[in-house]
Design goal:
binds zinc ion, 2 strands, single chain, alpha+beta
């Protein structure tokens, strides 16, 4: 077993050097504590926005574009 194998969110490659791992997000699980999202240090800057922030923003925009109760 490989304990706590971290995979880069940007390039999907395993992050073998712990010093090269950057925590970019924490995602909530449907049941349980959720998990951390990692990226290579060099790739973390390419992830423009926090994934959870993107989801929340998308939901807000959808509600504005398609109002409920019409
Ligand atoms: Zn990477």
């Amino acid at each position: 077993m490989t304990p706590h194998l971290r995979v880069c969110r940007q390039c999907d490659e395993p992050i073998t050097d712990p010093d090269d791992a950057v925590l970019v997000a924490q995602e909530a699980g449907n049941s349980g504590p959720g998990w951390n999202v990692w990226a290579h240090r060099a790739h973390a800057d390419r992830l423009e926005m926090h994934p959870v922030a993107v989801r929340v923003l998308a939901r807000i925009l959808l509600v504005r574009v398609f109002p409920q109760g019409g």
